[in-house]
DNA sequence: AATCCGACAGGGT
DNA sequence: ACCCTGTCGGATT
């Protein structure tokens, strides 16, 4: 269950008449306990309580219902109960149906609301559902509740008004929801005259069956679009109950006042939502929660998508907030400096070209208001109106609903800041009517002209949007109050790997990259934002920082994207290396992201952030940050089809493309019922990454053409080949191309005498890359790389710390795992010319590593290279190997990985600069 | 003809 | 319900 569902369940429970017998079980059920678990507790089997009327669930909660007036004593008894400690309860809770007291035993936090109000403490109870660590949700239960209630309303309205769910009317529906949210907020914050005016008006004047609710709403909306001076003359006359609503407009209440039809339930949901305290809505996170309401795909994870404030600050602080705060610090009490800073604040534009529901803009705005307030405080002008115009916070968003919400979130943020810093009275005086300017553009950011939406100061650029999309007409008429100002571009644009892009995404990228660079089809969708930002920055001196999938700074994409960004004239000003971007949606694994800041005139020093092992941020300052987000001159590693140094050829393993029919478990192999001789002829051991690393047993059919006829006489084999064929015929082009030789892998490579195997993906926790020596009988699958019949000293290189550092930097990654590549990592690996003596020494080192492993037979590679348990003799063998190899490079051990990487980049640059073509080398690879 | 990638995916605990 | 760690084969070059 997610937070929204739990909220709904406990709210429902609190509304029911109190039933002492039932309460503990209903409470547990509300937090997602299964029927069977409840049944077991009810029967007493799993009830560990030693308190009268108590229910105790292990590792969870001890609940007791007591007679009226004895709640406090009962809680005391629960706290003192030996069973509470023994069962490791996290919470204790006592209630008599009048009041409820509970304690979080881990934190000592207690609550004591009157019974019907306990759902207000959702955040307190969330650890019961295992979502304790989410600070934003715990601190903002109102946002979760609001989301849940609006969602119910939204779903019910669409059910009753199917026409509003159509493409044409979705915009109306979204606009309608935005209006409601505004009204809910306004009635709880004195923006409307009278607390609860909106909800009460609906409740009093509409029919209980909901039949005329839409008419009421239409009238209220109409009122909010009529200035008070015009109220007397408008046609038709406003009814009295609508006349109490102020003129708001601001685009929010202009246009059609149409409202969807309500059912009895929808009306109840509306009132239920209105009864929440919207004053406490937190626009930082409310927007990202609520946007899921209008998104069919996201609705299942309602309230689970939000971008946490600390993560957003990872972008905004280095981009410009740190600098503002430093200037504030520097100003001290100096009048002139304070005024300069205030003026500077007023001319800062923040532009998020993928703004979603406005997270980044809202937080940037709030942070800037905080700084401005500090200035005003030092100058004793605390009631002074803000000089920071909301219209300097611009955004582009593709989806309509989030775009509506973003604008609303900014309006709410502005009001809340005014209340907080200037007081309720001043805040109200300036609030209505809303400005009608529209600074959140709904459109495709990759197709729109950013210069028009966020024009450079002093130029009169008109909207020149691309033919496909229309920019709102009045857009170019909005003046930026940005004369002599600064522009900061930020955000978290969508990521979409090359393979997962739809035609529309591809064509967006094509419009940007085609005719400009090669191989753009392999870029992630997010790359489009970086290119547009780079182009924009060159013209306007803007600074940009985006959250991005880390893959644009790894492997294949680096030479494609960054060569162009650097060519345009931008460089990386600051960066945050890979970290996991928490996404609460269960099963939706968090994605690994980086933050990259680019600028045409980057400020110094360059700042490179990363997370240390304990998860806290560390900052390094350096002269340059390269495209791999490492400190150092801009070196870009291109793929090479043969080794640049004098190394053996490494080949990609054999791809089955078999739907599982060429691959065999041991049981499947035995089930073929082959004779010893047949098995020897047609079946081989096969290794991919997992098999090699974890020592798993796997086999495959391996049929040479000259034995095909014989193989097909064996029924079990013939059937499998037949299945492979049909799988391939139904597959993609790659598969169809080889359908006519379905007894074989895509390729049939193997070693004549020996094979070195390097896994394609392996855990980053290991201190060395796994590499193994296998007999020629073993087949290497596409999930690993192979060196067929290569001298053993090659293995010494792969097993070295130097190589791990190189691979970890220049190859792609799977999240943060090492992902090996022959073309990007092995062929580019810079190695000094090795003497025969060097090779002999390295061969001895490799043998020593193999022997050290052998001593622990049958331990797997995963066990041997577990950083906690790596055996001492193996560690020694690797130390020795590193010692020998590093002496070949620089005559001593390297001090650290930074030094290793610098040397490797240096060698690589030398090797590629000398441009002496290496003769292509063919290894003695078996081929049939 | 040869591989690189995954707003992941699947197994283990 | 996380935590750990690498499948699989299509799309792209």
Automatic annotation (TrEMBL):
Residues 1-159 form the MmeI-like N-terminal domain. Its EC number is 2.1.1.72. GO terms for molecular function: site-specific DNA-methyltransferase (adenine-specific) activity. One of its GO terms (biological process) is methylation. Residues 632-833 form the MmeI-like target recognition domain. Transmembrane segments: none annotated. Residues 172-253 form the MmeI-like helicase spacer domain. It is an enzyme of class 2 (transferase). InterPro entries: MmeI_C, MmeI_hel, MmeI_Mtase, MmeI_N, MmeI_TRD, N4_N6_ade-DNA_methylase, SAM-dependent_MTases_sf. Residues 328-609 form the MmeI-like DNA-methyltransferase domain. SUPFAM superfamilies: S-adenosyl-L-methionine-dependent methyltransferases. Keywords: Methyltransferase, Transferase. It catalyses: a 2'-deoxyadenosine in DNA + S-adenosyl-L-methionine = an N(6)-methyl-2'-deoxyadenosine in DNA + S-adenosyl-L-homocysteine + H(+). The keyword DNA damage does not apply. This is site-specific DNA-methyltransferase (adenine-specific).
